[in-house]
# Entry
Amino acid sequence: MKPAIGDTPLRVGRAGTRGVLFAMCLSLVLVVASVSALNLALPDLAVDLDASNSSLTWIADGYTVALAALVLPFGALGDLFGRRKMLILGNLVFGAAALFAAFADSTTHLIVWRVLMGIGAAMIMPGTLSTITSVFPADKKDRGVATWSGFAAAGAIIGMLVAGGLLEQWTWKSIFVVSAATSLVCALAALLLAPETRSSTPEPFDRGGSVTTALMVGTLVYGIIEGSDRGWTRPEALIAFGVSALALIGYVALGLRSRHPILDPRLFLLRGFRAGAIAIMAQFMAVFGFFFVGLQFLQLILGYSPLRSAVALVPVAAVVLPTSQITPRLVRRLGCKVVLPVGLLCLAGGMFWLTLLDAGSGYPAFLVALVVAGLGIGLIGSAGTSSIVDSLGPDRQGVASAMNDTTREVGSAVGIAIMGSVFSSQYRSALPDSIRGLPADAAETVRHSAAGGLQVASHLGERGLQLADGVRDAFMNGFTDAMSVIAVILTVAAVACLVFAPARHRSTAGPDGEPRTGGSSAGNTLLTDESVKTDAFIN
# Structure
């Protein structure tokens, strides 16, 4: 037991702060792993369900879109009704949807269940970080956030290792069965090891802000995917982008007028908040966009099995975890203005290195990119997360956590959409003219996906060798173009963080630990001291 502010005792669960950290990171890994694990099964899904590149993108992105669109509203609800309660309910929803997904027999059904899994994940995710920042005392909070950030990045690799092992023995359906079982373990761990926390000053739920933020994210990603697949001037894409823009305007207008907005637009005037959001979003755009196409490189170009592909990515986690642990000290010494741009440039360097690969490149060249990118991920994750959560007070940690999660999942969804779209369009345009001589169904299979193209080639004997080479070259054309796009985005984000990030954290809290209202030319902004310790605790 540690004393809280005043005379209120803090209850941190049966196993103390370590137990809380274990329970929260377990649920975190489940959510993050479910974004990445299915990427290993994309070649199998392309063949088993006759899925096109567009369908594969939606199978991957249906989960992240729902998660990104709803994590902020569920974070606010957790502040109101209890974060542990919301997390446990989310695990149950997630598990049920995963179990149904295991029996999906079409891409449409699988996409629907993936979306429902994303809804459950949106209920889980905010409570993981906000519980840690609420429970941990000030002298341990940075370490807790750093550990959370490390597992947020490494969880993707953990998920792929598990998925790879499962795919060695069973089909892609086993991934969903194991996910359903794991969600029950996560719910039990939270129930036994974590305390219930909520805001000590409940605020009305912002329905308008919740609707506009969900519409803004969902329609933006839909427009990117459909625009790439069917054409940017198609009515579906134009309407989606229009709705997204109107939702953004509505969010800002409602947020400025509301006394209790779900996320005050004025928070983006805070240099640390803004820089952290930019860095985290760019990081996850790169990481999960890379996983979407990078895993296919390992399987289709290098010929690795699913498990070997997952093991090939372990060096990322081996670099990320220790780097994230030392990042808080680097931030205290150098400031976010240095750490965030350096991290983003390291990640951009890793992505740029991948543009130099070709169909004959081996794993050593790929490994160089992984190590450089892993260093950048470790620096960005911890520094960016701290920048966001330190910008809001203790009663708003659910929303702070949800905002951090929103930037991650918006980045993941947009990254998959952009890199998947660039890859698909460039892959199709680079296919050899020889596919015109194939039967119509076979030619369409080749256009749908590289996995389908290589399967068609395997049935054509001597003629198939030339087609396989053409499919691999087309794949690399799409792969390198996708990496080029994300490298440019990361470089722009690095420049933005160099401009926006504060040189040092400066306390603006009053002597009572409450945030002061700072006067700026843009209006009032809420700034809080990172030493503010805790929310109200409910046993």
Remarks:
- The first strand starts at residue 2 and ends at 3.
- The CA atoms of residues 168 and 307 lie 7 Å apart.
- Strands lie at 2-3, 9-10, 196-198, 516-518, 525-527, 536-538.
